[in-house]
Amino acid sequence: MGQTIAEKILSRHNLAQAPLKAGDFIGARIDGAMCHYQFMDIHRLAVEAGFEEGFPRVWDTGRVYLLVDHHQPALAQSYADENVLIRKEARRLGIEHFHDAEPGIAHQMMPDYGYVRPGELVVGNDSHTIAYGALNAGSTGITRADMLYVLLFGELWFQVPKSIRIVLEGRQPGYPIAKDIILYLAGRYGDDFAQNMALEFTGSLVPQLSMDSRMCLSTHGVEVAAKLAMFPFDEKTRAYVEARTDKPYEPVAADPDAAYAKEIVVNVDEMPFVVAKPHQFGNVGPVDEVKGVEVDQAQIGSCSNGRFEDIEIAARMLKGRKVAKGVRFIISPSSQQVYLQCLKAGLIESLVESGAHVVTPGCGVCQPKVGYLSDGEVCITATTRNFKGRKGSLKAEIYLGGPLTVTAAAVAGRIVNPKEVFDGL
Predict the structure, then answer these.
(1) Is 80 exceeded by the pLDDT of residue 70?
(2) Res 395 pLDDT > 80
(3) For residue 16, what pLDDT is reported?
(4) pLDDT at 71
(5) Per residue, what are the HEC states of the chain?
């Protein structure tokens, strides 16, 4: 019996150097560890474990990636004080890849800098670490206690997950549809249909998908409870990775006779525009079901949809149009590199002229950090989550949609089918 991508990656990293199948428990060698603003929490766990000064060392100073995201620039005095401590620890430990004063989201910056390569096993102390599967890598979020162990020893235990094969068929339209795909899946199969399993995306649509779209799908793997969410390696992957690093890598491909727990086929040609209604990722229906709901705020950003193609579609659709009066349309690039890409393409000027707010790259637009909602307000957003309180008020309502659906609502002032606002879709 052949192996899935997940089984192959974990077999490659198995300390016992033996091939694996779903259900096996193993100790695995880690290629990279991503730490963000919670780094000092892990330091305090080390103190509680008996290391008086915190980490005595990290297992490999070149494989630990420390990115002070979420609160950069500092949004409060407490964050500023914590950042000072992080800087001190990074210097003491000699961490080579430390991104301090650079705003952005760790899950975009890791690929931006070539820190993740095909075939690798990477962990991070954030649930959306699963995003790097877009690069044909195995990546997953772990607890702070597990990260303490990884930082000390460069190893961690895993149970090899079963895999679900997601077959994407159809034609890529002239706008991003990754968000609609994952919302459609969550709505049809439940937002826990991949519980502790690996998603493996394949099908005729995959070669058509941009790396931005693949990252959106992998990032949202955790929203359907997956442990891993991975794409096959192809020429688009190669071009993306090799433009950012010259380090060697070894891609992984599933065997033709690999065994899957389930296969799900989606024909995107038959898929409508969809939204997740308050207050759950899996509370999904066609956009026409909620057409006419007035919005106070619209957003594009986060580690799911703050990339170039998400911002480009907004700028393209807004050209010659204005954001509706009374609507706050907030756009946050996912990293400084993405921001620069948008600037060079002339997107930012167009967005500002149309009435959009372009804010600092980072996680704030996805959380109650930037763009709070008040009681009774409605937001439609191409970010990651829509549970109660995600944007402040427990009495606000948050809808999730793709960047085109969000832009259409920003122009119309209400949730609407994008085809009713934009010609030629």
Answers:
(1) no
(2) yes
(3) 96
(4) 72
(5) CECCHHHHHHHHCECCCCCCCCCCEEEEECCEEEECCCHHHHHHHHHHCCCCCCCCCCCCCCCEEEECCCCCCCCCHHHHHHHHHHHHHHHHHCCCEEECCCCECHHHHHHHCCCCCCCCEEEECCHHHHHHHHHCCEEEECCHHHHHHHHHHCEEEEECCCEEEEEEECCCCCCCCHHHHHHHHHHHHCCCCCCCCEEEEECCCHHHCCHHHHHHHHHHHHHHCCCEEECCCCHHHHHHHHCCCCCCCCCCCCCCCECCCEEEEEEHHHCCCEEECCCCCCCEEEHHHHCCCECCEEEECHHHHCCHHHHHHHHHHHCCCCCCCCCEEEECCCEHHHHHHHHHCCHHHHHHHHCCEECCCCCHHHCCCCCCECCCCEEEEECCCCCCCCCECCCCEEEEECHHHHHHHHHHCECCCHHHCCCCC
Q: Enter the DSSP assignment of 307.
A: S
Distance CA(40)–CA(193), nearest Å, equals 34
Cα separations in angstroms, 304 against 7, 19, 258, 365, 383: 26, 33, 29, 12, 6
Could you give all domains of the chain from N- to C-terminal order, each with its CATH number? 5-266 (3.30.499.10), 274-419 (3.30.499.10)
pTM, rounded to two decimals: 0.96
Q: Name the band, by pLDDT with cuts 50, 70 and 90, for residue 326.
A: very high
Whether the per-residue pLDDT at 72 is higher than 80: the answer is no
Contact residues for 280 (Cβ-Cβ < 8 A; gap 6+) = 191, 386, 387
d(C-alpha 301, C-alpha 400), whole Å: 12
Least confident of 157-171, 364-378, 387-401: 364-378
The single-letter code of the amino acid at 135 is: L
